[in-house]
Design brief:
The protein starts with 17 loop residues before the first helix and ends with a strand. The chain is built from 16 helices and eight strands. By secondary structure, it is an alpha+beta fold. It has two domains: 240 residues, Serine Threonine Protein Phosphatase 5, Tetratricopeptide repeat (Alpha Horseshoe), CATH 1.25.40; 107 residues, Immunoglobulin-like, CATH 2.60.40. 43% of the residues lie in helices and 20% in strands.
Length: 367
């Protein structure tokens, strides 16, 4: 989703703090004289501390529905007046959530409202229930959006239909059969907007997790010498390349087994959470011909009960000269995420080149 220019708070959910809700109430009252400020604030502020980021966003939509006068279309009309006054792309997503939550019975009007709102805060989550409910009807609209003059609307055509959009409703029929997405992706593969092309790449990467050959069939028909299509294809295949998928590697010239001697060293060998791990890889060619190499590294994270799970990280692409040598360096901050919690113990790191693991080293993590 598009990022806001506002600095990140200590917790993302604080984008919807008390001050934000009071600001929204003032702006709503300014564009809707019969707006019930007290109702809006009671519904948003009571229990605020217990709600997650998305729950706060959704509660804004619920509170707006309760506090605004009129029917569904009249309330959307007020929210359209509010949209340019919000000034925060993520907060403005609640406008589209309002449409998804209360507009399912007014299909065409609701989709047109999402087309309007997505210019202020992405409607990628909100359009998905409409796709799930009436896919043919929704895809006809999405196809029209691929020709919209506003890049946020064109991006929505791709982003909203991603089968496995993070945080979004999974579109199970598209996970099973992504064919309806093909026409959208073909229409956008040369889009002048980087944000649209990035969405197309992420969309294809989603599909590659379930249908790698479907994705590769299409990319092999593209003109990868064109900057736009080549960039999309490389990013679309990042998961396949990191997993060492032979056909994906061949598509980008990394199909041959690497003829190199490799070493991997880590510094420091012992570190604590919050510190940086330094990696250095040395690749020495054993070939009399140049080689194209896709270099990744794999960290085997220790789990709570002592087992490990691995995650592959993209490092770089290398054109290694005949009998040449390349020294690669990078660092990685070890810190917890909502999706990954670190545990103390010995962690293995492996160097992967063209899908083949060539070297490894260990580090000890202390909490």
């Amino acid at each position: 989703m598009p990022a806001s220019d506002e600095p990140l708070p200590a917790q993302l959910k604080d984008w919807f703090n008390e001050a934000r809700h009071r600001h929204l109430a003032r702006e709503l009252a300014a564009v809707a004289p019969r707006f019930e400020t007290d109702v809006f604030l009671q519904l948003t502020l009571d229990g605020l501390d217990t709600r997650s980021l998305m729950q706060r966003l959704q509660q804004c939509a619920v509170a707006a529905e309760a506090a605004l006068p009129g029917n569904y279309r009249q309330k959307v009309g007020v929210l359209k007046k509010l949209a340019p006054r919000i000034g925060h792309e993520f907060v403005a997503i609640f406008l589209s959530d309002f449409v998804a939550r209360f507009g399912s019975e007014d299909f065409e009007f609701s989709l047109e409202s999402l087309r309007f709102f997505t210019r202020f805060g992405s409607a990628e989550f909100a359009v998905r229930p409409f796709i799930a409910a009436e896919p043919e009807r929704a895809f006809a609209t999405l196809m029209a959006w691929t020709r919209d003059p506003h890049e946020a609307v064109r991006r929505l055509a791709s982003e909203g239909a991603r089968p496995r959009l993070p945080w979004g409703l999974q579109l199970r029929e598209l996970v099973r059969d992504p064919q309806p997405c093909a026409v959208l992706l073909e229409a956008l593969k040369d889009d002048p907007s980087l944000s649209v092309r990035r969405s197309v790449a992420n969309h294809l990467n989603d599909i590659s997790k379930d249908h790698p050959e479907w994705v590769l069939d299409r990319l092999e028909s593209w003109d990868l010498e064109r900057e736009s299509q080549g960039w999309i294809a490389r990013h679309a295949c990042r998961t396949l390349i990191k997993s060492g998928h032979p056909r994906a590697l061949r598509l980008f010239g990394f199909g041959e087994a690497p003829k190199v001697e490799a070493t991997l060293s880590l510094q420091p060998a012992r570190l604590r959470l919050g510190e940086r791990l330094g990696l250095q890889a040395v690749l020495r060619s054993c070939s009399s011909r140049p080689q194209r190499l896709a270099v990744d590294y794999v960290i085997h994270y220790v789990k709570a009960r002592g087992q490990t799970f691995e995650k592959v990280f993209k490092w770089t692409l290398v054109d290694l000269s005949a009998r040449g040598e390349a020294v690669l360096e990078k660092s990685q901050l070890l810190r917890d995420f909502t999706t990954r919690k670190h545990h103390a113990g010995k962690h293995r790191v492996e160097l992967q080149v063209n899908g083949t693991r060539l070297a490894g080293a260990d580090f000890l993590l202390k909490l």
